Structure to design on (689 residues):
């Protein structure tokens, strides 16, 4: 089924056939490989490997602990707020510099939300819906403050502002937002046990640390 | 804006399932020419697509003691491919590239395992960027907050053959060693530039500020005594932006005493005429770039490609939402002389093939294909596959060949970590699927590249080829 779908999809499949001779397709069976099976259920490698795989079911390379799980559940809605603030910049920013800066942060945080959701899938965890988790968080002001997130009142002010007022407030709120994230990142790097997540956290930490510094300079230049 | 298809649109490359490949014999009649990498719907799990001018000639699956760990970067010496992993080193015999053989594995954990090999083929160096309980191969992982934790560079002796690989030194470096770059000194000395990042007050072995690289000196008559010669602050004035928090990777071009550095918030050009005292001669920032990842010179080092690893390698950025200018390459000309040399931005480039949102895909490691008179670049894009681009006309870079698997099933982190040209073949280290070997045929410039033979190759130590 997959094969016929490919032919249908590749508009130039016939033209490809014109330059490629495909021989010895007779033994090709249906694609398999689901179920993490052993032995003959495993799809053959594209070219015969020099040695058989001695262990088709490798142990997982990393372990996930409660700190990892909680970090991701909290960081997804935290990131979502950055995209909410970034979306406002599209029409409300006073300068192209701030608009572009906010857009970059939004894209980055959106990509990272997807990463963290994928990580939950890979590890058999429930996937956190970013928007509904964020809305739930809006009802927990203490927690939001602890995580450096903007309060609903601050978001209302930001939403009502434009031009230089918007730029200044966006930078102030995003600095606090990032600082909250940095604390969470340091915590998961220190206490978590999953190598993949720790690597991502280190890269987020590095990026957000210099973004905070850069935003401080932008603020200084505005005043 | 980046162009996503060629003027003369050729058919999409062959799309076949993994199960079919093994049974197929592909014979190219005439010149297939560059494939138009037309934007299409992403591949399904189990599918493989490649342009008509590329052949997948071999795969060696992940296995043995390094099974279950991620496979990362590659180096080459003679007929041996040296593949780093999070668990140690894999050595392959590639004398017959169509039939590579895993000949030995050196189990010695520590991600990400970025490897280089000494020009004499006696030593392998391996970067470790996650804290270990000690520097031995029997160590286990520990917290970054552990003041006694070890991370840095392993020095591995392979002079008695790769089957007898043995760690003879382990050099601790600040913030570990995310990558390292081999820099030739005099005939008795090698230097390693160690790139590392992620400083924070809570990390005892990675305190801010961290605007430096560590330089390891390796005396070749006594490599077991390798030591940190110096920590050189590349940004004494704070850099183009406020501060960098470290470098991710550095590529040196010793014949011109030049280095390109991807240092988080900025891309830099360095003078390394005294390899023990590199200094920055120009640096650039870019609104679309945040995580400057690597630098690759073109063959004569008149130009440099920087990459932005948006999302750190785990994210799905090869889609319309992220677009063609983020998570991409940025191509710069090097203009001027001496310390007045400057980086001048030309354009972005990103693969045109959309990927699923479960596929981590972003610009990653690559190398120049030494084609006469052309600038060709082979590059890994994780689950976006291996892509060959022609940036001879840098404001109109085009993809001329590719190899792309559909998403992993079940979904996971994977794809091609590094794809490098070595003596006529492309070797791709796949995070979970092992080592792939690819061959380009019927493409202008490739025959001239095929004639060039290298004795060894470290991708971040570039020489003019041909």
């Amino acid at each position: 089924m997959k094969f016929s779908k490919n032919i249908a999809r590749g508009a130039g499949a016939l033209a490809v056939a014109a330059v490629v001779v495909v021989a010895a397709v007779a033994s090709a069976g249906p694609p398999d490989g689901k179920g993490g099976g052993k032995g003959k259920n495993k799809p053959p490698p594209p070219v015969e490997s020099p040695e058989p795989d001695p262990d088709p079911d490798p142990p997982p390379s990393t372990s996930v602990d409660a700190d990892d799980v909680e970090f991701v559940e909290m960081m997804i809605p935290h990131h979502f707020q950055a995209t909410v603030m970034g979306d406002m910049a599209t029409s409300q920013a006073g300068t192209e510099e701030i608009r572009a800066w906010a857009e970059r942060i939004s894209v980055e945080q959106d990509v990272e939300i997807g990463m963290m959701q994928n990580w939950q899938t890979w590890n058999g965890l429930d996937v956190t819906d970013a928007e509904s988790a964020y809305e739930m968080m809006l009802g927990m002001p203490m927690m939001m403050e602890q995580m450096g997130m903007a309060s609903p009142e601050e978001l209302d002010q930001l939403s009502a502002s434009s031009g230089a007022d918007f730029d200044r407030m966006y930078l102030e709120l995003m600095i606090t937002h990032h600082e909250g994230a940095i604390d969470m990142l340091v915590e998961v790097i220190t206490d978590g046990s999953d190598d993949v997540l720790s690597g991502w956290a280190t890269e987020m930490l590095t990026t957000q640390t210099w973004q905070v510094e850069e935003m401080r300079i932008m603020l200084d230049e505005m005043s | 804006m980046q162009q996503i298809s060629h003027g003369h649109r050729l058919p999409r490359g062959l799309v076949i399932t993994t199960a079919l490949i093994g049974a197929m014999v592909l014979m190219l009649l005439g010149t297939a020419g560059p494939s138009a990498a037309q934007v299409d719907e992403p591949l399904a799990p189990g599918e493989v697509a490649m342009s008509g001018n590329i052949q997948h000639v071999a795969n060696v699956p992940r296995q043995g003691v390094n099974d279950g760990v991620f496979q990362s970067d590659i180096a080459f010496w003679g007929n041996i491919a040296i593949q780093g992993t999070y668990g140690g080193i894999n050595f392959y015999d590639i004398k017959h590239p169509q039939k590579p053989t895993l000949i030995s594995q050196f189990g010695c954990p520590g991600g990400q395992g970025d490897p280089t090999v000494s020009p004499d083929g006696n030593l392998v160096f391996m970067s470790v960027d996650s804290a270990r309980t000690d520097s031995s191969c029997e160590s286990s992982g520990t917290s970054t907050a552990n003041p006694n934790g070890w991370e840095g560079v392993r020095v591995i002796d392979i002079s008695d053959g790769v089957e007898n690989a043995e760690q003879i030194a382990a050099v601790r470096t600040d913030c570990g060693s995310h990558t390292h770059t081999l820099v030739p000194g005099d005939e008795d000395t090698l230097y390693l530039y160690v790139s590392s990042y992620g400083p924070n007050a809570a990390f005892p072995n990675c305190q801010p500020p961290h605007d430096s690289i560590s330089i390891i000196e390796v005396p070749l008559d006594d490599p077991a005594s390798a030591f940190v010669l110096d920590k050189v602050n590349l940004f004494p004035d704070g850099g183009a932006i406020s501060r960098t928090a470290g470098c991710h990777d550095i590529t040196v071009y010793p014949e011109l005493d030049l280095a390109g550095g991807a240092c988080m918030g900025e891309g830099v050009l360095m003078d390394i005429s005294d390899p023990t005292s590199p200094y920055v001669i120009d640096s650039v920032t870019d609104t679309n770039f945040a995580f400057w990842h690597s630098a690759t010179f073109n063959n004569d080092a008149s130009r440099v490609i920087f990459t932005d690893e948006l999302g750190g390698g785990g994210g799905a950025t090869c889609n319309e939402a992220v677009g063609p200018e983020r998570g991409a390459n940025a191509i710069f000309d090097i203009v001027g002389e001496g310390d007045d040399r400057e980086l001048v931005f030309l354009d972005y480039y990103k693969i045109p093939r959309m990927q699923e949102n479960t596929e981590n895909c972003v610009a990653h490691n690559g190398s120049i294909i030494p084609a006469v008179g052309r600038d060709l670049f082979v590059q890994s894009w994780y689950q976006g596959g291996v892509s060959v681009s022609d940036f001879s006309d840098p404001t109109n870079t085009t993809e001329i060949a590719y190899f792309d698997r559909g998403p992993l099933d079940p979904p996971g982190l994977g794809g091609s970590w590094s794809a490098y040209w070595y003596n006529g073949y492309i070797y791709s280290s796949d995070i979970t699927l092992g080592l792939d070997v690819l061959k380009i045929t019927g493409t202008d410039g490739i025959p001239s590249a095929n004639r060039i033979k290298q004795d060894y190759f470290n991708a971040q130590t570039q020489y003019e080829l041909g």
Summary: Chain B has two domains: 1-54, 60-397+409-439. The first strand of chain B starts at residue 14 and ends at 17.
